[in-house]
Design goal:
2 copies of one chain form a homodimer. Chain A contains 18 helices and 18 strands. Chain A is elongated and about 80 Å long. In chain A, helix 1 links the parallel strand 1 and strand 2. By secondary structure, chain A is an alpha/beta fold. A 6-stranded mixed β-sheet of chain A has the order 5-4-3-2-1-14. A 6-stranded mixed β-sheet of chain A has the order 6-7-8-9-12-13, covered by helices on one side.
Chain lengths: 564, 564
């Protein structure tokens, strides 16, 4: 029996961009053929992009996707690539119910071999696939060069039974899985464990191709890999970049060792996920630059740094909007940050505007504080509208959780890069980015889609990105004299622990007390979180990087009287 | 065989308010006993409220709900009501998976008879039940007074097979269904048809008890009813109000005819749904009054009228915020409307504020138009913050669809009462409300929860509510000289037809052309709708009244390149 070579095409598709996605598939097939691959494996729903949500329910969309797949098969054939076996994903139609399916197809010899429909439809967390798809109910194999390939799609390997068990009974030489598995911290290790179990179950190597790129509130990290039947890691593609790797199934039924990309530092991984989320949101929605308010605080500094890494400092418009309560230190820190990243930097004092409103409205207390934040929101949106820039919101997860922000004020924007980062994580990532800068990683120096050459990027002046003062000073919204976040909230070190337990682990009051948190803190935090749901509903999209992000990952009613 | 009397307790619960819901159940049981009922039937998930969304996943919530049900059974018993059979809904726990279930329980003789778990879990449209619940897999009957009752929960009667088919095989004397069926136009007739089919299937009368009240973006209209096996309507409770009706199963196995509430006028039905949505959002989130911008246009006029009907004109703060482009007619219309409904009325000219911003920012075109709208948003939120009022947004469905609004401007608010009404429907309902006013229906004169005495309410001066000029003039945002909506959008009569086809019926481009719409209109409208998704994501909640509302009913990606 001869060897069989697989190309693993870890690509960044765009939802709904049938033309662009097909063109990219064609391009990667060309490159795969150059590297003498017989089979090219693409991610889940490659032709349509993923996840397509309720687009699946539109008949004309399904028809267009189907037509595009057929045309792609012909294009492959007419450019001399018809001999390749191209494994890709698209939306299918269930023959019985006529409902949409999540389908794996094989393009070969000018035709679409209409293949395998995903069996296990995830409908938890961020997933709604039971809503939109009909489940497939048969396993599928394909013989290529005397080897039997079995197929599975993403969730199919996360559940026991189903198609993989059937394939184990039938016997396969390799298990090919196509995936759209969103990034979250720590998930790469889980994926590998699960894949190792399935490789053992079928007694054959497993190929795991994952998509890469940002799509609304999800980031796909790629991290494609191949394991032998005994769980040995044979190949691993880099995270956050497009990649084409090649692996070969040898005569003895094992995969020959190939390149293994190293694990990223955990801080670098999360930082890069946020940047890719922003970068792809911009690219896919046709934004060339961003604007944001620069307060001199750590949140806006980190977001500005991410923005510079996503689109270059010259495409970032930072606006300092000092009030009478802004400290000189804050103004200096904002200016330093802007200079470090090479951003445009404007100063728009809000005092004249605040005065004009106050002459008319005479507001006090929280209403007067919110007014300052909302004047800033108006200014940021004016920059967005007049220059065609994406406004980015700078709120972190601790603020979102507690409602410690002004709706229509600091919360304005089309994307919120750090909304899933607790405040303590914001500090950690800021320190990591400065260490990376000191080590020579300049602006745009991340390993990331569209930036395949990687580090070091555009050098930073002095090798510093985020002013140390922004990291080290006590957090303050500076909306009244001497204000500190800790006047209204527990210290972030404590707060973030309670939030992680309450939100990510769904601990109730009794659980939190058993966790060792004191009663007053628990009651304060739970009350704040529960009351802020209405604000979170109107908050911009931002990348999920934890096990449980706000948004479609955590669907709680705004109106709820449940108080523990 | 003796007669068996059922009380139908159509109540308005609040999600998470275990105490309040249990107290209301107890109260209705008392009243049911006074009317000599043997069985009291409550809506779906009565104890927890409905829908509870991801609260189902919190262990301490399930425990609290279970404890409250047990305590309620004891309270019933200790107040002499232990002999009643109380059919209610709550969250249960699946014995095998330990996951949450949507459960029907019977409280009797001091104990919770842990009963029937919903089998068909709706996971389409606004529903996410497959996400949170484990499906029950057995039908359940209960003998009371020699009659066999079979049970089903809401979706169980909307699907063929399952528990109702089993009950038909086993034989029952009455099919008792508990429901949380959200309102949409025309749905009452569909419900009755489906129930008639199930009554025929089991060959017995069917009891359909539905909840009433608003919960975030859903309105439950009640409209409880009873049919005999032959489909005859025996009883119908009023819509939009709490109600306790009584029906009796006679010796011959049919229900004795009882009171049948008449169908509402279709305009009245939709108008009342919007008002109840707002009223319950306010009550359940502890708002006593609302504030909104009054432009003199029809949208803000209709919303103000609804607000007056929801909470009384004295609790409505209308703010006129004229610019240099506001016509005298508009200012007069706004003042007339406020006077008609007895609202507080303030004038806050935006010119000084606009001037202050422009001296600093010098904006032009759309950016300058948006600035005016955002200054108004800041003012409305200032009223909200300083007076503790709910800000209500006045956008209609046609605007939301086309993105014809300013985010953080006229879109600010916690609730948006007319967001699911197309512009043409806004005019129709305005005319209806004026006809009703002329016929003597004053402010708060709707049949609605908390207002059980019903019409005529507080008389309107001159019997007019909405100024005729607001209804009849050409719509304009008045953000530049002589501006008309029709400069940017097709005429609403045409636009709304295209929107209904594209949104509610998910027609693609080819379908729309086949519907007879011209190519240019179709392309314009589709492009506008597709591009506005990001604004809709940040729009306030508002009541669903059509078959397909924006929000969780229509889940489309913000980032999508699909263009037909």
């Amino acid at each position: 029996m001869s060897e069989l070579t697989f190309a693993l095409a870890q690509i960044d598709t765009c939802v709904g961009d049938l033309e662009g996605n097909a063109a990219k598939i064609l391009d990667y097939c060309r490159r795969a053929a150059e590297r003498r691959a017989a089979v090219v494996v693409f991610p889940e729903m490659t032709i349509t992009g993923y996840p397509i949500e309720d687009l699946a329910l539109r008949r004309t969309f399904r028809q267009a996707a189907w037509d595009r797949a057929n045309r792609l098969a012909q294009e492959l054939s007419s450019t001399g690539l018809g001999g390749l076996y191209v494994v890709a994903g698209t939306v299918g139609t269930d023959p019985a119910s006529h409902g949409p399916t999540n389908r794996l197809v094989v393009l070969h010899d000018g035709v679409v071999w209409s293949g395998y429909d995903k069996h296990f439809l995830p409908n938890y967390g961020v997933f709604d696939e039971f809503r939109i798809f009909t489940a497939g109910n048969r396993s599928v194999t394909l013989e290529i060069g005397g080897r039997r390939l079995g197929f599975a799609i993403c969730e199919d390997i996360w559940q026991d039974g189903g198609p993989v068990s059937e394939l184990a009974r039938r016997g396969v030489d390799v298990l090919v899985t196509i995936n759209g598995s969103p990034y979250e911290e720590g998930k790469t290790h889980v994926r590998r464990e699960i894949a190792a179990n399935r490789a053992a179950e079928v007694g054959a190597p497993i190929i795991y191709v994952n998509q890469v790129g940002g799509q609304d509130d999800l980031v796909f990290d790629g991290g494609t890999f191949v394991l032998n039947a005994d769980g040995t890691l044979v190949e691993r593609s880099p995270q956050f970049m497009e990649d084409l790797s090649v692996v070969t199934l040898t005569e003895n039924g094992t995969m020959r060792p190939a390149a293994v990309a190293p694990d990223l530092d955990p801080d670098e991984e999360v930082y890069t996920a946020c940047v890719l989320g922003l970068k792809d949101y911009m690219a896919k929605n046709h934004f060339h630059g961003v604007t944001l308010g620069l307060s001199g605080g750590i949140d806006s500094a980190l977001v500005a740094a991410m923005a510079a890494d996503a689109c270059g400092g010259q495409n970032v418009w930072g606006v300092s909007m000092p009030s009478m309560y802004s400290s000189d230190g804050s103004k200096d820190d904002a200016a330093d940050l802007a200079r470090n990243i090479g951003a445009h930097y404007d100063v728009q004092p809000i005092e004249p505007l605040f005065g004009a409103f106050q002459r008319q409205l005479d507001l006090h207390d929280v209403a007067a504080e919110n007014l300052q934040a909302r004047i800033r929101g108006v200014i940021v949106m004016a920059y967005s509208n007049s220059k065609g820039l994406l406004a980015v919101a700078t709120g972190n997860k601790s603020e979102l959780a507690c409602g410690y922000s002004t709706i229509y004020g600091d919360a304005v924007g089309g994307y919120a890069p750090i909304k899933d980062l607790l405040k303590t994580r914001v500090w950690e990532l800021s320190r990591w980015r400065n260490r990376a800068a000191a080590a020579g990683m300049g602006i745009g120096g991340l390993h990331i889609v569209g930036n395949e050459e990687g580090r070091p990027g555009v050098p930073l002046p002095g090798g510093v990105m985020i002013p140390v003062a922004s990291i080290e000073k006590a957090p303050s919204a500076e909306l009244r004299p001497g204000q500190k976040d800790s006047d209204s909230l527990p210290e972030y070190e404590l707060l973030d622990q309670v939030l992680a337990a309450y939100i990510e682990h769904a601990h109730g009051r009794a659980d939190l007390l058993a966790d060792g948190f004191d009663e007053q803190t628990v009651d304060t935090v739970m009350r704040l979180v529960d009351r802020a749901e209405w604000k979170r509903r109107q908050y911009p999209l931002g990348p999920k990087v934890t096990a449980l992000a706000f948004g479609r990952d955590r669907r709680l009613p705004v109106t709820s009287a449940f108080r523990e």
